[in-house]
Specification:
Elements (H helix, E strand, L loop, with lengths): L9 H6 L3 H10 L2 H9 L3 H9 L3 H10 L2 H9 L3 H10 L2 H10 L2 H9 L3 H11 L17 E2 L4 H11 L8 E5 L5 E6 H6 L17 E2 L4 H11 L3 E5 L5 E6 H19 L14 H18 L1 H9 L1 H6 L7 H24 L8 H30 L2 H31 L9 H24 L2
Parallel strand pairs: 1-2, 4-5
Antiparallel strand pairs: 2-3, 5-6
Helix pairs in contact: 3-5, 8-9, 8-10, 13-14, 16-21, 18-20, 18-21, 19-20, 20-21
Length: 447
């Protein structure tokens, strides 16, 4: 591809101070692409093209950004533009922005809101951090169960423009207790004189406002819902968790789990825009812990120093055995952590998981032991090869049990299973695997 054929990037136009070119680029691209381009820039540069956006598009682009990027944009706006932008945000998005913003920006944002929007935002911020209440939208069209379809459609037309979604609508009784949900398509296709109480889906899942937001998002994914009704402790309707917020919750949770499984702290923000020092700091904590934990392996080697002096060939297979055990343990840990995240495995399944993974480890051990036996016999003789093969079977079985058990035990004591990351399991299996190897070698070789 020649330089003339390469697509023009917003950053290139910014580098050349081409304001006209930037306006054209912004007009030709959808909000999510503009947001991605802004997220790749340092905040002091991103504010320039953001100010060039049309008023009717800047909110769409702004709400596509992460809260950290939103804070950086707001910090570069004048008071009037700042107030207008925050006022126009959806209440749930605004609450999360204020929740994560520094005190100066949060105070400035709240002070600029109209009384109605401030009350709505304060109500959302009153729910616990990480709860559904922080992510739900109170901007909904609520219908009474005794309404006719014709009257319900009139209400939707009158109030629908201010609601975040009208595809599914909550139906309540006189005490605002949730009766269920009704789809807009059902209203449109039903007879005008039909009553909502005859159309409402009373089996629609619901979430409690103080419950886990991630659990609610997973429920929406499992039940294929466009929106999930949220109720208070008395089953009164308080808002909806919409699918876009659910997707963001699942993406954030999965990104956090992946980071922790790779022995790193989660880093929020666009990877390209995150600084080197911030990335190094996020990864250094776990690496320091793992290097300390790896001293267990050194201690085991020292404990069997006499055995190694008598049969030095045993040392040849240490990297193979530790690597194999670590890989098997990591595979089991990753599988169980993922199964926990999507709800396939629960705490009461501990014995079933151990039984399943131990058999998987045993089968893998026999398969790999056959290969190890052949290679060992060719290199060092049948005696050591037999010790290595038996060790492979034992280590693979043990590693699968350790890798599958640790995430479940972590969940039981209230720790995120992803914290019991694959590198941590691998380090533990390395040390215990060497104990198994040298013990088997002593028994087989009589040393």
């Amino acid at each position: 591809m020649t330089d003339a054929e390469k697509p023009i990037e917003l950053a290139d136009l910014l580098d050349t101070d081409d304001l006209i070119g930037m306006r054209l680029w912004l007009a030709e691209h959808p909000p999510y692409e503009i947001a991605d381009a802004l997220a790749r820039m340092p905040p002091e540069r991103a504010i320039i093209p953001f100010r060039l956006l049309d008023k009717n598009r800047e909110l769409e682009v702004f709400e596509e950004l992460d809260p950290g990027q939103q804070q950086a944009i707001l910090a570069g706006l004048r008071d009037t533009a700042f107030r207008e932008l925050v006022e126009k945000m959806d209440p749930d998005d605004r609450a999360r922005l204020i929740e994560e913003a520094p005190a100066k920006i949060a105070t400035r944002a709240l002070a600029g809101l109209s009384p109605a929007e401030r009350r709505m935002t304060a109500a959302l911020l009153g729910y616990p951090e990480g709860s559904v209440g922080r992510y739900m939208t109170p901007d909904t069209v609520v219908l009474h169960r005794d309404l006719t379809v014709a009257r319900a459609l009139e209400v939707v037309r009158a109030k629908g423009a201010e609601a975040e979604t009208v595809y599914v609508l909550p139906v309540v009784d006189n005490g605002r207790r949730l009766s269920g949900m009704v789809q807009l398509s059902d209203l449109v296709t039903s007879a005008p004189d039909s009553l909502l109480k005859d159309l409402v889906d009373v089996f629609t899942p619901r979430a409690h406002a103080t419950g886990s937001a991630e659990d609610a998002a997973r429920l929406m994914q499992e039940a294929n819902l466009v929106a999930l009704p949220v109720v208070d402790s008395e089953d009164r309707f308080v808002g909806l968790l919409t699918f876009d917020d659910a997707l963001e919750l699942i993406e954030a949770a999965d990104s956090e789990d992946i980071a922790r499984q790779s022995a790193s702290q989660p880093v929020h923000g666009h990877y390209v825009a995150v600084g080197v020092l911030r990335l190094a700091r996020a990864r250094s904590v776990w690496l320091l812990l793992l290097i300390v934990a790896s001293t267990l392996t050194v201690n085991v080697m020292q404990g069997f120093e006499a055995t190694l002096e008598q049969v030095t060939a045993l040392a040849l297979f240490v990297p193979m055995l530790t690597g194999t055990g670590g890989n098997v343990g990591s595979q089991s840990a990753t599988a169980v952590v993922r199964a926990l995240a999507v709800g396939d495995v629960r705490l009461r399944d501990l014995h079933r998981v151990i039984w399943k993974e131990s058999r998987v480890g045993l089968l893998l051990g026999f398969m790999l032991a056959g290969i190890a036996l052949v290679i060992g016999s060719l290199l060092v003789g049948a005696g050591i090869a037999t010790a290595v093969a038996l060790s492979v079977v034992a280590i693979c079985t043990w590693a699968a049990i350790i890798g599958s058990t640790m995430p479940l035990l972590a969940r039981r004591v209230g720790v995120d299973p992803a914290v019991v990351s694959a590198p941590l399991v691998s380090t533990l299996v390395d040390a215990t695997g060497l104990l198994i190897y040298f013990s088997v070698a002593r028994a087989v070789l009589g040393v």
